[in-house]
């Protein structure tokens, strides 16, 4: 082992895969003569030939096959150790963090994600749309690493990080609807509306919050059509098939001339939260949550 160079080992590993000096040289970004030099140096250290080379083919010798079977797992373990140390040196903030959104993200959220990229240039954030009717499925399956969803969230396997954008709920009504000209409306007036619901695996408490079946005093609210995505719901509203409750950031980000958003009083305010699985929590999740709190949460009394 005295004096052995990692480059010699890498050369042998590539050669054992390609069994061609020209292709190995291309992969290693060196000349064919340099590949021959590295292989020769390794063979002299070992004291035997590792590859047989003829004018037609390159093949491993029995010594080479045995050496390869022991070297490969050791080399991979060494490379993984170096990679873990490199990531640790950067605080674990590296790679791509896929963040799910219900519909789309508004300018404030996108600004926070841009600030995260600037603070942690080795960690990219990739926005991914998730269905309104399944707010927790994508993050549980690993389709996304985290998600920004509407509260409430009462899932014991999910972490609730930064909570922001606490604002009154808005009712989406089609242009020309009797309520479209109102500055606000009371929660009891929902009894006179057909509320668009959700068709999907969202928990019952979450679907009830998004489309309550009764007013605060207990008056029943007529159900409208059920949808899976935000755009399906807005299309149904525009078509006059029902009305739809939305959180303020989601509503105000929709630039539609055929829908009016009216604040609803007497309902619990809506809020957005960053969530992720307990089982896959990482430094990236915590760093993003901290930055979103800094950027998006208004201090008490401000």
UniProtKB/TrEMBL annotation:
Q: Which UniProt keywords apply?
A: DNA-binding, Transcription, Transcription regulation
Keyword tRNA processing attached: no
Q: Cite the HTH lysR-type domain residue spans from the record.
A: 4-61
The UniProt GO MF terms for this protein read: DNA binding; DNA-binding transcription factor activity
Give the highest taxon in the source lineage. Bacteria
Q: Which GO terms describe its cellular component?
A: protein-DNA complex
Pfam families associated with the record: HTH_1, LysR_substrate
Q: Which Gene3D superfamilies match?
A: Periplasmic binding protein-like II, Winged helix-like DNA-binding domain superfamily/Winged helix DNA-binding domain
UniProt cross-references to PROSITE patterns, sorted A to Z = HTH_LYSR
- PANTHER family xref list: HCA OPERON TRANSCRIPTIONAL ACTIVATOR HCAR, TRANSCRIPTIONAL DUAL REGULATOR HCAR-RELATED
Identify its protein family: Belongs to the LysR transcriptional regulatory family.
Q: What is this protein called?
A: LysR family transcriptional regulator
Species whose genome carries this gene: Streptomyces buecherae
